[in-house]
Amino acid sequence: MLLACTRDCYDTCIFRPIYEGGRLARLLPIGDFPTLGFTCARGAADVKRLSSPRRVKRPLLRGERQTLEVSWERALEELSARLKAADPSRIIHIDYDGNQGLLTWYYPARLFNLLGTASTDYSICSAEGSEAIKLHWGRSYGAMPEELSKRPVVFWALDAATSFIHGWALAKRAKNPVAAVDVVWTKTMKSADLPVAVRPGTDVVLALGVSREIIQRKSYDAGFVERYTYGFDRFMEYVDKFTPEYVEAETGVPRTVFYKLVDFYLRRPITVIGFAIGRTENGGDAARAISLIHALLGDPAGFYYSNSGAWGIDFAYLRGLHLAKPSKVVPMGLVGARISEFDVVYV
Questions:
Q1: Higher model confidence: residue 125 or residue 242?
Q2: Which end is more exposed in the chain, N or C (fewer Cβ atoms within 10 Å of the end residue's Cβ)?
Q3: Distance (Å, rounded) from C-alpha 14 to C-alpha 27?
Q4: pLDDT of 60 higher than 90
Q5: Burial (Cβ within 10 Å: 0-12, 13-18, ≥19) of residue 318
Q6: Where are the alpha helices (DSSP H) in 148-254?
Q7: CA 189, 193, 197: angle at the middle one, nearest 5?
Q8: What does the DSSP 8-state code read for residue 94?
Q9: CA 36 remoteness from chain centre
């Protein structure tokens, strides 16, 4: 039997459970891809957390003066009573990817959609980047993780050494060059062969500058551009203002470093575009601008952002949206400001 970690993480570690005396003693990371025989500190501590005396094992009900441990029956009765008493439009269901899995994440929304409660737009992580990339590619997925061991890699807006440890291991073990673009000096930036520090919110300027330089050098794949793209002349005209001088002034990236990044891209690397970029000003535009560098290189599967759209899974069906829809949808970034609109918040 194998177990998979359910955290919202790039890696999705796979374990073989080890039992001693009839009890789960430890989780052994499998040696095969993608786990490669190791896991993070949190994954290694899961067994300890499972058996911890501090673990919450029964529902807690908060009263006016204290929080009490109650039975599951009492907790369910209390919750159902509050849901029944409230106007459905004043109930909001808030969840996200704390529990990876098609049933554990998506399926509970069916109940709340049937009740006609409010929902969020599930936009806090990667939605803006996915939609922006779809504008050009019709899809948001590209390279597979296995490619990280075959080519140079650019980790853009992602501290892979900390939060994508197996992708980082694949890249480093292959001994191919690694570049990193970020707004702070992360562990990845400190370990990269080419670190590029950029001002927050200006990644899109840097990416469009790289595209301009590739075009100026006539290093783009003219055959691919002519056969598979449209609007190239307008794009070429648009990026013309993103000169090395302009890029340096806006992003803080010195021209010498900028030219090194362009040269790095001419080696046809894989770019891993981090979800962090979507939490910045111009985040969606930055994600699609970075992806378009690979269009110029004739490398449509050369970037990795999110591959969840690659497998033909009907996420709307899993949430039951074909049967019922939320009474209203609140953008996740505005939940805090609008929380007073609701009498019941189910998280």
A1: 242
A2: N
A3: 9
A4: yes
A5: middle
A6: 160-163, 165-173, 187-191, 203-216, 222-228, 232-239, 244-251
A7: 40
A8: -
A9: 21
